[in-house]
Amino acid sequence: MTLLFVTRNLIKRPFLNIIKIIGLGMALCATLVIVLFLKNELSFDNFHPKSDRIYRFTVTDPAQFEGKHFARVFNPQYVPQMAEYFPEIENYVRLVPVLGGVVKLNERFISVDQAFQTDSTFFDIFNPGLLVGNPAHILDNPGSMVVSETFAKKVFGDLDPLGQVVTLPDGQYYNTSVDFVINGIMRDFPPNSHFHPEFIVSTQDKGELDRFAWTYFLLTENSSKNNILSGFKNFYSEHINQEAKERDIQAHLQNVSDIHLHSNKLREIEINSDISIVYTLSIAVIILLLIALINYANLNIGMAAYNQRYIYISKVLGSSNWMNLKYFLIEGIIITITSISFCGLLAMSANFVIQKHFSINLFVGNLMTIIGVVGIFNLLSILSGCLQPLRQMIINLTSPLDFRKNPIPGRKGISKSLIVLQYAISISLIVAVIVIHRQTSYALGRSMGVEDNNMVVFNNVHTDVQNKFEVFKAGLLRFNSIQSISAMLEPPGGEANDRFEFTMEGNSKDETGNGNNTIVVFPCDYSLPQVFNLNFLSGNDFSEKNIDSEGAGEYIINESALKLLNHINPQDIIGKEFGLISNIEGVQIPKGTIIGVVKDFHLSSIKKEIEPMVLFKQESLWLLNFVVSFKPGMQTEAMNDLENVWTEMFSEHEFQYEYVSSMYKSVYKTEILQANLLSVFTFVALFICSTGLLGMAMLAIRRRTKEIGLRKISGATIGEIVTMLYWDFIKWIVLSFLIAIPFAYLAMDKWLENFVYKTGLNWWIFPLAGAFALISALITVSIQAWKAASRNPVETLRYE
pLDDT (tens digit, 9 = 90+) per residue, 483-520? Predict the structure, then answer.
């Protein structure tokens, strides 16, 4: 019988009950997605059985690279000695990236995104799981290769890859080609890993491991990293370089599970996230949970009058408190079960979008977490929906005679306080969303070549392709769809860290040791300034040739380099003699003059300060990245023409490219994800706040039913009554705005400190956020206010 009454009452008021279901479903979906996302972020690299003992080793040295902190170690040939010197080091492994971007199989070049030459100890430290092979000895023999499951399927399909010979071809990075034999297949490193190799190989030449290498130590059980950190300088001075005693050389050890959220060093293996997003979303999910539960309770209290008659009659007929509690429990269970179904549809859609854009499947392996979140959320929902209304009704229905005197359960200051708190939070969130979206748009807008989304990059091409760049360029420019082509050392979004010493007319060598004798070098094709529309402050663009003779070299510097070279006026430095001192054996760069000064441009993230840089032309050497732009509206034709020329010239190489806009979106992946999640969260929070305000409006208007009737009889217009009712709520939103602004300002000012270049907190952001919250509140109240103001006063007074 109780179920029948509950079902009937739910059907009688579909609008309000649907709002309850939608509010709870959206809150549960947002909570579930955020919790699963946070679990993924916090679980990075924990899948390794020895993760608590794995530490990444890095070094900072003022004498090298101006003391900058790189994620990999320069010339780590001393690492085996360290393992013998420090008893705390149980084992070590060095990861040297496989360069060139390709490997060769049966005269076919295969693109490689990430692969490493490594020590034979790799599987003693990292353990993705081997499908084929013995991890203890699989890398013992030089030239042994272990491929990932995905790479094996991509290259060999259903064929057995074991025993196949894969060649690392000669080229810009390797003097001779090197063969490797596939001896094993490993599982793909999971998404929550800070690196994802397609294959690893034991080196044929141990000298290869003396290159720049990401270096990891496995510490012994219960040992302390502090002994290594404090003793490193002495070790380095005794075994490597005695002069290190005079320098502030320092070792750093970072646990592997901390890298993803706590590392933003130069030359990270992959782009990491940031702990700030965890803090932000953790606070967000707690706020969302509180808002959802409070507003569900508010709505139930607002609708309590509809159930008053049923409760009153039940009491008169002798029903117990348990029977009345049973009514609310059943109603809450029906509402929450329905909201779970609605949440399921939303969550699947959200997971699909996240998986598509961020390659994260939040549902895989998280069944118990999902059950736990859904169970706890709905238990709290049922409790918040039935305990408070029941308490109010028990108080009001202690005596049946009180029914006519006080038929509607009420609240006093607490409702208004909760509304103020909820809207203050919502306004703060709206400010955060606006600021983060503006900063992200600013970052993408300042990036090279993203204005029209009509530019693609062939990243890290092989030397065979580099050597034919001029022919490739000429072949493409024959087509009307192609606008321009250039080539450069680093790809858009990459890091330009290579530095050379230089000489310049009138510039004396800096003897202070502050690093003012080196400058970042950026070799490129002559058309790069034109392709990326660099803004010239003075001078001219490169001449249309890539070969310069000694004494006639052409150099273009940026604004930061102008300051480094002790000049203020860009015109004054044009024509100054300039030369680069190559630190690479056999490579000479012709001396010449500075022909132009360009405005600073953002090759990398705007979180990093732009460094003094010099651009110079090269024919093929170091031109690793080809950039092709096509004319607006001709994308399809351009890509067809591009593929035809590529296939004709480089048939043995894969036709693989990436849009410049996508490359920069990868650079700002964390900020974009944070902005998107926070936007969804803000919308959900604002919707839930509005449903709570709707419940409060129902209560307030019902209480003033008699007053509204008397005002209408006295001549008040509908507009005057609506305005009166509006003001009751506007004043609380205004109060919320005043409370929110200082907190929102401080929080977003702190967040913007992560960026060297930023938009700033414009004044109009805050009233815009307040106006948005106010409009949403007025829309919510309007329906109830208009109904009350339009009601016949005779019916109103008869009701009273």
Answer: 999 999 999 888 888 889 899 988 777 655 555 688 99
